[in-house]
Amino acid sequence: PVIRIGVVSIFPEYLEPMRMALLGKAIDRGILALDTYDLRDWTHDVHRAVDDSPYGGGPGMVMKPTVWGPCLDEVCPDDALLVVPTPAGVPFTQATAQQWSRESHIVFACGRYEGIDQRVFDDAAKRVRVQEVSLGDFVLIGGEVAVMAMVEATVRLIDGVLGNKNSHQQDSFSNGLLEGPSYTRPPTWRGLDVPPVLLGGDHAKQDRWRTEQSLARTRERRPDLLPPDLLPPPDTDDTAS
Ligand code: SAM
């Protein structure tokens, strides 16, 4: 395969949708190899316990290093990238997806409860690259949904995964801006018209229109993404006096 992805979870069935649709096709075509592992296979007790109460008190449970350590020793080779989804990580962005799409093996460690004993990653970092990464500023119940989102964003950038190679080059963020609105037939629907410029044949004009729309939308919804020279001029209207 071009990329091998391993995911460790206590709910490996949760990850099965990753074998559907375009990711499933990438697996069939031999581009993606997906290995899912049940963390409980590395437990040693009859209860198959993966968690314990936190040192220093506090609510919830913490996942045990004595289970995660041997599991990662086995499923995460030295040349893989180990990714730990956590709301306390650095934000995952399109740039992260682009970097990861050039990796040959990524292993994701899905936490549950209050997360995983930190020593698991301090120990793993002695031999592999470890990245603690957040899907966004909100808290999920477990790492699985975050991993599915990160894997989709990453794998769709690999050649041969999308039908049309150009389609991801026009997406939001690929040039740093949001993509503008899209339209298809019919030209008028429920009294709403497709912008006339898109119905004509002037491709240069259409490209300019798309750039304008992209800038306008980014200015309105995500001004933080705009380079300073494209920001609206500062408000000089001195209403305070
Ligand atoms: N105690 C942790 C904290 O406050 O940082 C939250 C743990 S959360 C309830 C349980 C698991 O969900 C985490 O170990 C992580 O795998 C996953 N998770 C939750 N929110 C996430 C996010 N924004 N990005 C990535 N993973 C997340």
TrEMBL record:
Keywords: Cytoplasm, Methyltransferase, S-adenosyl-L-methionine, Transferase, tRNA processing. GO terms for biological process: tRNA N1-guanine methylation. Residues 4-226 form the tRNA methyltransferase TRMD/TRM10-type domain. It is found in: Cytoplasm. GO terms for molecular function: tRNA (guanine(37)-N1)-methyltransferase activity. Its main location: cytoplasm. It catalyses: guanosine(37) in tRNA + S-adenosyl-L-methionine = N(1)-methylguanosine(37) in tRNA + S-adenosyl-L-homocysteine + H(+). Residues 225-234 have a biased composition (Pro residues). It comes from the Bacteria. It holds the Pfam family tRNA_m1G_MT. InterPro entries: Alpha/beta_knot_MTases (IPR029028), tRNA_m1G_MeTrfase_C_sf (IPR023148), tRNA_m1G_MeTrfase_TrmD (IPR002649), tRNA_m1G_MTases_N (IPR029026), tRNA_MeTrfase_TRMD/TRM10 (IPR016009). GO terms for cellular component: cytosol. Residues 202-224 have a biased composition (Basic and acidic residues). Residues 172-241 are annotated as: Disordered. Its EC number is 2.1.1.228. S-adenosyl-L-methionine binds at residues 111, 135-140. Homodimer. Belongs to the RNA methyltransferase TrmD family. Specifically methylates guanosine-37 in various tRNAs. This is tRNA (guanine-N(1)-)-methyltransferase. It comes from Williamsia limnetica.
